[in-house]
From TrEMBL:
Name this polypeptide is given: Metalloregulator ArsR/SmtB family transcription factor
Coiled coil regions in record: none
Family matches, as PANTHER family: METHYLTRANSFERASE
Cited NCBIfam families: HTH_metalloreg
Domain HTH arsR-type: 1-92
SMART domains the record matches: HTH_ARSR
Pfam families: HTH_5 (PF01022), Methyltransf_11 (PF08241)
Taxonomic classification: Bacteria, Pseudomonadati, Pseudomonadota, Alphaproteobacteria, Acetobacterales
GO terms of molecular function: DNA-binding transcription factor activity; S-adenosylmethionine-dependent methyltransferase activity
Protein backbone atom coordinates (compact mmCIF):
# COMPACT_ATOMS: atom_id res chain seq x y z
CA UNK A 1 0.00 0.00 0.00
CA UNK A 2 2.85 2.41 0.76
CA UNK A 3 4.22 2.05 -2.78
CA UNK A 4 0.78 2.86 -4.24
CA UNK A 5 0.41 5.91 -2.00
CA UNK A 6 3.86 7.15 -3.03
CA UNK A 7 2.95 6.79 -6.70
CA UNK A 8 -0.35 8.63 -6.21
CA UNK A 9 1.42 11.44 -4.33
CA UNK A 10 3.92 11.69 -7.19
CA UNK A 11 1.06 12.12 -9.67
CA UNK A 12 -0.74 14.72 -7.61
CA UNK A 13 1.05 17.80 -8.98
CA UNK A 14 0.18 19.76 -12.16
CA UNK A 15 3.64 19.74 -13.77
CA UNK A 16 4.10 16.03 -13.11
CA UNK A 17 0.72 15.26 -14.66
CA UNK A 18 1.77 17.26 -17.71
CA UNK A 19 5.03 15.29 -17.88
CA UNK A 20 3.15 11.98 -17.76
CA UNK A 21 0.76 13.14 -20.48
CA UNK A 22 3.72 14.04 -22.70
CA UNK A 23 5.53 10.78 -21.95
CA UNK A 24 2.45 8.93 -23.18
CA UNK A 25 3.22 10.39 -26.62
CA UNK A 26 6.81 9.10 -26.71
CA UNK A 27 10.26 9.51 -25.16
CA UNK A 28 11.62 12.96 -24.34
CA UNK A 29 14.90 14.14 -22.83
CA UNK A 30 15.20 16.78 -20.11
CA UNK A 31 16.03 19.60 -22.52
CA UNK A 32 12.95 18.79 -24.62
CA UNK A 33 10.74 18.82 -21.52
CA UNK A 34 12.14 22.25 -20.59
CA UNK A 35 11.39 23.56 -24.07
CA UNK A 36 7.85 22.17 -24.15
CA UNK A 37 6.85 23.11 -20.60
CA UNK A 38 8.78 26.37 -20.35
CA UNK A 39 10.29 25.51 -16.97
CA UNK A 40 13.87 25.39 -15.70
CA UNK A 41 15.98 22.27 -16.00
CA UNK A 42 16.62 21.93 -12.21
CA UNK A 43 12.90 22.08 -11.47
CA UNK A 44 11.99 19.56 -14.16
CA UNK A 45 14.84 17.25 -13.14
CA UNK A 46 13.34 17.10 -9.66
CA UNK A 47 9.88 16.26 -11.03
CA UNK A 48 11.35 13.59 -13.30
CA UNK A 49 13.28 12.05 -10.42
CA UNK A 50 10.14 11.85 -8.26
CA UNK A 51 8.16 10.22 -11.05
CA UNK A 52 11.00 7.79 -11.72
CA UNK A 53 11.37 6.88 -8.04
CA UNK A 54 7.61 6.18 -7.93
CA UNK A 55 7.90 3.81 -10.90
CA UNK A 56 5.75 6.03 -13.14
CA UNK A 57 8.56 6.86 -15.61
CA UNK A 58 11.34 4.77 -17.12
CA UNK A 59 14.68 6.43 -17.77
CA UNK A 60 17.27 5.28 -20.29
CA UNK A 61 20.66 6.88 -20.88
CA UNK A 62 21.75 7.27 -24.50
CA UNK A 63 25.03 9.10 -24.93
CA UNK A 64 24.82 12.51 -23.26
CA UNK A 65 21.02 12.39 -22.95
CA UNK A 66 18.65 10.58 -20.63
CA UNK A 67 15.30 9.71 -22.18
CA UNK A 68 12.07 9.37 -20.20
CA UNK A 69 8.99 7.38 -21.20
CA UNK A 70 6.06 5.58 -19.60
CA UNK A 71 6.86 2.09 -18.30
CA UNK A 72 5.26 -0.86 -20.14
CA UNK A 73 1.51 -1.16 -19.62
CA UNK A 74 1.86 -4.54 -17.92
CA UNK A 75 3.91 -3.10 -15.05
CA UNK A 76 2.38 -1.65 -11.90
CA UNK A 77 3.73 1.84 -12.57
CA UNK A 78 2.82 1.72 -16.25
CA UNK A 79 -0.74 0.61 -15.62
CA UNK A 80 -1.23 3.21 -12.87
CA UNK A 81 0.14 6.04 -15.02
CA UNK A 82 -2.19 5.11 -17.86
CA UNK A 83 -5.18 4.84 -15.50
CA UNK A 84 -4.49 8.36 -14.25
CA UNK A 85 -4.01 9.75 -17.77
CA UNK A 86 -7.31 8.26 -18.93
CA UNK A 87 -9.04 10.58 -16.48
CA UNK A 88 -7.46 13.77 -17.80
CA UNK A 89 -9.82 15.90 -19.92
CA UNK A 90 -8.86 15.88 -23.60
CA UNK A 91 -9.97 19.50 -24.01
CA UNK A 92 -7.80 20.90 -21.22
CA UNK A 93 -6.18 24.06 -22.60
CA UNK A 94 -2.82 23.50 -20.90
CA UNK A 95 -2.53 19.93 -22.13
CA UNK A 96 -3.54 21.02 -25.64
CA UNK A 97 -0.78 23.65 -25.64
CA UNK A 98 1.70 21.01 -24.45
CA UNK A 99 0.65 18.72 -27.31
CA UNK A 100 1.25 21.49 -29.83
CA UNK A 101 4.71 22.19 -28.43
CA UNK A 102 5.52 18.46 -28.33
CA UNK A 103 4.56 18.05 -31.99
CA UNK A 104 6.93 20.87 -32.90
CA UNK A 105 9.79 19.42 -30.84
CA UNK A 106 9.30 15.95 -32.35
CA UNK A 107 9.28 17.41 -35.87
CA UNK A 108 12.42 19.40 -35.17
CA UNK A 109 14.11 16.30 -33.75
CA UNK A 110 13.27 14.32 -36.89
CA UNK A 111 14.41 17.17 -39.13
CA UNK A 112 17.80 17.59 -37.44
CA UNK A 113 18.35 13.83 -37.37
CA UNK A 114 17.85 13.45 -41.12
CA UNK A 115 20.92 12.62 -43.14
CA UNK A 116 20.15 15.33 -45.69
CA UNK A 117 20.03 18.01 -42.95
CA UNK A 118 23.43 17.00 -41.59
CA UNK A 119 24.88 16.90 -45.11
CA UNK A 120 23.35 20.03 -46.62
CA UNK A 121 22.99 22.42 -43.69
CA UNK A 122 21.67 25.75 -44.95
CA UNK A 123 20.72 24.19 -48.29
CA UNK A 124 18.36 21.75 -46.58
CA UNK A 125 14.64 22.03 -46.96
CA UNK A 126 11.94 19.46 -46.58
CA UNK A 127 10.88 19.42 -50.19
CA UNK A 128 14.39 18.46 -51.27
CA UNK A 129 14.62 15.96 -48.41
CA UNK A 130 11.52 14.29 -49.87
CA UNK A 131 12.83 14.57 -53.45
CA UNK A 132 10.00 16.94 -54.35
CA UNK A 133 10.36 19.43 -57.23
CA UNK A 134 11.31 22.46 -55.14
CA UNK A 135 12.06 24.67 -58.15
CA UNK A 136 8.66 23.88 -59.69
CA UNK A 137 6.92 24.70 -56.41
CA UNK A 138 8.75 28.03 -56.18
CA UNK A 139 7.74 28.83 -59.77
CA UNK A 140 4.11 27.94 -59.02
CA UNK A 141 4.14 30.14 -55.92
CA UNK A 142 5.55 33.12 -57.82
CA UNK A 143 2.90 32.56 -60.49
CA UNK A 144 0.14 32.92 -57.87
CA UNK A 145 1.43 36.30 -56.70
CA UNK A 146 0.94 39.67 -58.40
CA UNK A 147 3.84 41.03 -60.43
CA UNK A 148 3.79 44.29 -58.48
CA UNK A 149 5.74 44.71 -55.25
CA UNK A 150 4.35 42.38 -52.58
CA UNK A 151 4.71 44.78 -49.66
CA UNK A 152 5.32 43.32 -46.21
CA UNK A 153 5.68 39.53 -46.25
CA UNK A 154 5.60 37.02 -43.39
CA UNK A 155 7.00 33.50 -43.86
CA UNK A 156 5.70 31.26 -41.06
CA UNK A 157 7.98 28.29 -40.46
CA UNK A 158 10.75 29.86 -42.49
CA UNK A 159 13.29 27.09 -41.85
CA UNK A 160 16.55 28.02 -43.55
CA UNK A 161 15.06 31.19 -45.05
CA UNK A 162 15.00 29.92 -48.64
CA UNK A 163 11.52 31.33 -49.36
CA UNK A 164 12.53 34.80 -48.17
CA UNK A 165 15.52 34.63 -50.50
CA UNK A 166 13.24 33.75 -53.43
CA UNK A 167 10.73 36.52 -52.67
CA UNK A 168 13.28 39.18 -51.68
CA UNK A 169 13.45 41.00 -55.06
CA UNK A 170 9.68 41.59 -54.94
CA UNK A 171 9.06 42.57 -51.31
CA UNK A 172 9.39 45.82 -49.39
CA UNK A 173 10.33 43.86 -46.27
CA UNK A 174 10.28 40.20 -45.31
CA UNK A 175 10.09 38.51 -41.93
CA UNK A 176 10.53 34.80 -41.31
CA UNK A 177 9.51 33.16 -38.04
CA UNK A 178 10.46 29.71 -36.81
CA UNK A 179 10.49 27.94 -33.46
CA UNK A 180 13.85 26.27 -34.16
CA UNK A 181 17.00 28.11 -33.13
CA UNK A 182 19.05 25.77 -35.33
CA UNK A 183 17.02 26.71 -38.39
CA UNK A 184 17.15 30.41 -37.57
CA UNK A 185 20.94 30.30 -37.34
CA UNK A 186 21.04 28.90 -40.88
CA UNK A 187 18.47 31.44 -42.09
CA UNK A 188 20.45 34.37 -40.68
CA UNK A 189 23.56 33.15 -42.47
CA UNK A 190 21.62 32.94 -45.74
CA UNK A 191 20.08 36.40 -45.34
CA UNK A 192 23.42 38.03 -44.58
CA UNK A 193 24.15 37.98 -48.31
CA UNK A 194 24.00 41.22 -50.35
CA UNK A 195 20.55 42.31 -51.44
CA UNK A 196 18.76 40.53 -48.59
CA UNK A 197 19.17 43.05 -45.77
CA UNK A 198 15.47 43.99 -45.94
CA UNK A 199 14.63 40.45 -44.79
CA UNK A 200 14.99 39.22 -41.21
CA UNK A 201 14.04 36.27 -39.05
CA UNK A 202 13.02 35.82 -35.44
CA UNK A 203 12.12 33.10 -32.98
CA UNK A 204 8.36 32.68 -32.62
CA UNK A 205 5.60 30.16 -32.02
CA UNK A 206 3.17 29.98 -34.95
CA UNK A 207 0.27 29.63 -32.49
CA UNK A 208 1.20 32.85 -30.66
CA UNK A 209 2.86 35.22 -33.10
CA UNK A 210 4.40 38.25 -31.32
CA UNK A 211 3.14 40.48 -34.13
CA UNK A 212 0.39 43.10 -34.42
CA UNK A 213 -2.93 42.56 -36.15
CA UNK A 214 -3.21 43.25 -39.89
CA UNK A 215 0.52 43.92 -40.27
CA UNK A 216 1.33 41.97 -43.45
CA UNK A 217 0.29 42.08 -47.09
CA UNK A 218 1.26 38.46 -47.77
CA UNK A 219 1.57 35.49 -45.41
CA UNK A 220 2.99 32.13 -46.54
CA UNK A 221 3.00 28.80 -44.73
CA UNK A 222 5.18 26.43 -46.74
CA UNK A 223 5.46 22.78 -45.64
CA UNK A 224 4.32 23.75 -42.15
CA UNK A 225 0.74 22.64 -41.50
CA UNK A 226 1.38 18.90 -41.77
CA UNK A 227 3.48 19.32 -38.59
CA UNK A 228 0.81 21.30 -36.74
CA UNK A 229 -1.07 19.63 -33.93
CA UNK A 230 -3.81 22.20 -34.50
CA UNK A 231 -3.84 23.53 -38.10
CA UNK A 232 -6.92 25.69 -37.46
CA UNK A 233 -5.21 27.64 -34.69
CA UNK A 234 -2.07 28.16 -36.79
CA UNK A 235 -4.17 29.49 -39.67
CA UNK A 236 -6.15 31.71 -37.31
CA UNK A 237 -2.92 33.41 -36.23
CA UNK A 238 -1.85 33.78 -39.86
CA UNK A 239 -5.20 35.37 -40.69
CA UNK A 240 -4.97 37.70 -37.69
CA UNK A 241 -1.74 39.31 -38.90
CA UNK A 242 -2.95 39.59 -42.52
CA UNK A 243 -4.24 43.00 -43.52
CA UNK A 244 -7.68 43.41 -45.13
CA UNK A 245 -7.21 42.85 -48.84
CA UNK A 246 -4.06 40.81 -48.21
CA UNK A 247 -3.42 37.27 -49.35
CA UNK A 248 -2.26 34.05 -47.79
CA UNK A 249 -0.77 31.01 -49.51
CA UNK A 250 -0.52 27.56 -47.96
CA UNK A 251 2.00 25.25 -49.62
CA UNK A 252 1.77 21.67 -48.40
CA UNK A 253 1.44 18.04 -49.33
CA UNK A 254 -1.75 16.76 -50.90
CA UNK A 255 -3.39 13.92 -49.05
CA UNK A 256 -1.33 10.72 -49.25
CA UNK A 257 -0.95 7.29 -47.68
CA UNK A 258 2.84 7.25 -47.24
CA UNK A 259 3.06 6.30 -43.56
CA UNK A 260 6.84 5.89 -43.74
CA UNK A 261 7.17 9.58 -44.66
CA UNK A 262 5.06 10.59 -41.67
CA UNK A 263 7.16 8.43 -39.34
CA UNK A 264 10.53 9.52 -40.71
CA UNK A 265 9.85 13.25 -40.47
CA UNK A 266 7.31 13.22 -37.62
CA UNK A 267 4.44 14.58 -39.68
CA UNK A 268 1.18 15.03 -37.77
CA UNK A 269 -1.06 14.89 -40.85
CA UNK A 270 -0.80 12.87 -44.11
CA UNK A 271 -1.23 15.97 -46.26
CA UNK A 272 -4.53 17.73 -46.89
CA UNK A 273 -7.39 17.41 -49.33
CA UNK A 274 -8.81 20.47 -51.08
CA UNK A 275 -12.13 20.29 -49.22
CA UNK A 276 -10.41 20.08 -45.83
CA UNK A 277 -8.07 22.97 -46.59
CA UNK A 278 -10.83 25.18 -47.95
CA UNK A 279 -12.90 24.52 -44.82
CA UNK A 280 -9.94 25.51 -42.67
CA UNK A 281 -9.38 28.71 -44.63
CA UNK A 282 -13.04 29.70 -44.57
CA UNK A 283 -13.16 28.91 -40.87
CA UNK A 284 -10.61 31.64 -40.13
CA UNK A 285 -12.38 34.24 -42.25
CA UNK A 286 -10.45 33.84 -45.52
CA UNK A 287 -11.77 33.38 -49.04
CA UNK A 288 -10.09 30.36 -50.72
CA UNK A 289 -8.93 30.64 -54.32
CA UNK A 290 -8.23 27.92 -56.89
CA UNK A 291 -5.61 25.39 -55.72
CA UNK A 292 -2.57 24.67 -57.86
CA UNK A 293 -1.04 21.18 -58.07
CA UNK A 294 2.66 20.40 -58.57
CA UNK A 295 3.17 16.70 -59.35
CA UNK A 296 6.04 14.72 -57.89
CA UNK A 297 6.77 11.64 -55.77
CA UNK A 298 4.30 13.26 -53.38
CA UNK A 299 1.97 15.84 -54.89
CA UNK A 300 2.42 19.37 -53.54
CA UNK A 301 -0.55 21.72 -53.60
CA UNK A 302 -0.73 25.47 -53.23
CA UNK A 303 -3.89 26.91 -51.70
CA UNK A 304 -4.23 30.69 -52.14
CA UNK A 305 -6.71 32.68 -50.07
CA UNK A 306 -7.60 36.32 -49.60
CA UNK A 307 -8.85 38.41 -46.72
CA UNK A 308 -11.78 40.62 -47.57
CA UNK A 309 -11.48 44.34 -46.98
CA UNK A 310 -14.19 44.10 -44.33
CA UNK A 311 -12.73 42.81 -41.07
CA UNK A 312 -14.72 40.01 -39.51
CA UNK A 313 -14.05 37.77 -36.55
CA UNK A 314 -12.97 34.29 -37.59
CA UNK A 315 -14.96 31.28 -36.48
CA UNK A 316 -12.93 28.14 -36.14
CA UNK A 317 -12.75 24.95 -34.13
CA UNK A 318 -9.65 24.80 -31.93
CA UNK A 319 -9.87 21.01 -31.69
CA UNK A 320 -8.06 19.37 -34.65
CA UNK A 321 -9.97 16.85 -36.69
CA UNK A 322 -8.78 13.28 -36.81
CA UNK A 323 -8.74 13.05 -40.60
CA UNK A 324 -6.96 15.24 -43.17
Amino acid sequence: MEHLLAALRACAEPTRLRILALAARGSFCVMEFTEILGQSQPRLSRHLRLLGDAGLLDREREGANVWFALPPADTQGGSLARAVLERLPEDDATLAADRRQAARVLAERAREASESFRRKGADWDEMRALDLPAAAVETALLGLLPEAELGRVLDIGTGTGRLLEVLAPRVASGLGVDASRAMLALARARLARPGLTHCAVRLADMYRLPLPDAAFDLVVLQMVLHYAEDPASALAEAARVLRPGGRLVVVDLAGHARTEVMTRLAHRWPGFGDARMCDLLRGVGLDPGTPVAVPGPLEVRLWPAGRSTALSAPTYDLVPETTP
